[in-house]
Amino acid sequence: MLAFTLRRAFQAIGVMFAVGIIAFSMFRFAGDPVSQIVSIDTPPAERAAVRKSLGLDDPVVVQFARYFGNAVQFKFGMSYQFRQPVANLLMERMPATLELATVATIISMVFGILMGVYTALKRDTWLAKLFQMVSLIGISLPTFLIGILLIYLFAVTLGWLPSFGRGEVVKIGWWSTGLLTVSGLKAIIMPAITLGLFQMTLIMRLVRAEMLEVLRTDYIRFARARGLTTRAIHFGHALKNTLVPVITVAGLQFGTVIAFSIITETVFQWPGMGLMFVQAIQNVDIPIMAAYLLTVSLIFVTINLVVDILYTVVDPRLRSTVSRPH
After folding, report:
1. Which of 28, 181, 201, 253 could form a disulfide with 168 if both were Cys (CB 3.0 to 4.6 A apart)?
2. H-type helices in 73-151, by residue range?
3. pTM above 0.85, yes or no
């Protein structure tokens, strides 16, 4: 188990190193940082001084080593647009993104598992067919269109929910949350549903397929032959084994939700890292773009590592295989 964890950790470090190279390349090929800092009529001597102060005259290897060393310490330089340290901007926006991704994942997991189990056990009912139709809609419609439709229905037509923003937030140390206020809870409903709808349909279809496959296995037949109740068979045996692959998918999808929350945050003007990344692209703010890429990659790789470890803990069949790598 320890050897497996160390192997996965080294692989994660290798991935982050590759992402660091990509992020560093943005500074080299996505524009001249000096042109973003100084004005057009700045004399060449001042431009040269700024270039030297940024270390752009150093060899590429030296620049990369300095950049990677700073990134390990979460030092991403100054934002061209806000004139503030990028790390501070990320820390301000990170709670909003993580809060939105967490609520969206909880919604998708709870409703996805319930709908998946129901459509597997009650395949011929009208409600099961309705759930499958909803899953097709969730997969087919693009995220921005779902968000716009929700805004039109619940904000413009009915006036029940706010159409943009995060609502009133409460500070708990450096963390800011809107889940403790009424306006914050109202504000997160539509963005969370928009962001989690695709994940919900994916989990629902996965649970349904796995549940149907598990119900056809021999040990389920033996459980019925032993006289166990239907509830014990479905939820004590079938569902328990169905959730093993769901853990992996849900964990990876949480990283995907964070990475692809950009569209949802833009539609609802949610003040998270994704919206800041879009604004950085519009203003060619390369430090924010590179820092966002590294931060999201770190979150995704960490979640992937944790899911791999949890997967071996939940499924005993994998413990013998991970201890004897091929």
Report:
1. 181
2. 86-121, 126-140, 143-150
3. no
Question: What is d(CA 69, CA 139) in angstroms, rounded to the nearest whole number?
Answer: 41
Tokens representing residue 206 in the block: 């996965």
Say if residues 118 and 128 touch (Cβ distance below 8 Å).
Answer: yes
Nearest to 314 by CA among 240, 250, 251: 240
In tens, the pLDDT along 55-80 reads 777 777 887 888 788 888 888 878 87
Sketch out the chain's domains with CATH numbers: 86-274 (1.10.3720.10)
Q: By the 8 A CB rule, do 257 and 101 touch?
A: yes
For residue 164, what are the contacts with CB-CB under 8 A and spacing of at least 6? 268, 269, 270
pLDDT tens digits, 114-166: 888 888 888 878 888 888 888 887 778 888 888 999 999 999 998 899 988 88
Distance linking the first and last C-alpha atoms of the chain: 14
Reduce the DSSP state of residue 56 to 3 states and report it.
coil
Tallying the residues shown for the chain, one arrives at 326
